Amino acid sequence: MIDPSPFGLSKVKKWGGIALVACFLFFWTTGMLTSLTAAACQKEKYQGQKKLRFCTISMMSGMWLDISTLERSKRSEIRLERGIAFAQLLREQDALDVFKDSLDDVRNKDTHQFIRLMKRMRHEQNPLAQKMWPLALEKSKWSGIAPNITTILEEVH
């Protein structure tokens, strides 16, 4: 008897291959979208609403990455940039909440990532962001862990 399926594949193998290709395309597409919008989010030439849009798209398209604490720690920089965008739009409470989330995402005493966030905020020019950052530090898990925040800030600069 002649196999009627194309290329001699059974239906299970055929649909399994289609599912595998679909999963690959989903993860590849969302990964590329996350990466490209994250890069745009971190550029200083984008301000306010446009910056917020890029940061939000990056956060939403890469939500599946938040399963890993390491990825969540890396994405804390995107959350920080999102907080800066909120500050540029004069949305104080949103900026404070996102800054705190950014600090909380830095995984278990990852001081390297924490210092990266501190360096970024040291160079931020927005006065509202500068005002909200210390408040977020006080409310985050880093308030008790970082022995002396001013010492860290001096080392960063």
Could you explain how this protein is built, in words?
There is one protein chain. The chain has 157 residues and is an all-alpha fold. It has one domain (9-156). The chain is 74% helix and 0% strand. It has nine helices and no strands. It has helices spanning 11-42, 48-61, 69-74, 76-88, 92-105, 111-122, 127-139, 142-145, 149-156. The chain is elongated and about 65 Å long.
User: What fraction of residues sit in β-strands?
Assistant: under 5%
What is the β-strand count?
0
| Class from secondary-structure proportions | mainly alpha
The helix tally amounts to 9
Helix content: over 70%
- Oligomer status: single chain
What general outline do the C-alpha atoms trace?
elongated
Taking pLDDT < 50 over at least 5 consecutive residues as the criterion, the unreliable ranges are none
Alpha-carbon Rg, integer: 21 Å
- Please, how many domains? 1
Distance between the termini: 77 Å
Largest pleated sheet: none
Mean pLDDT value = 81
Q: List SSEs in N-to-C order.
A: HHHHHHHHH
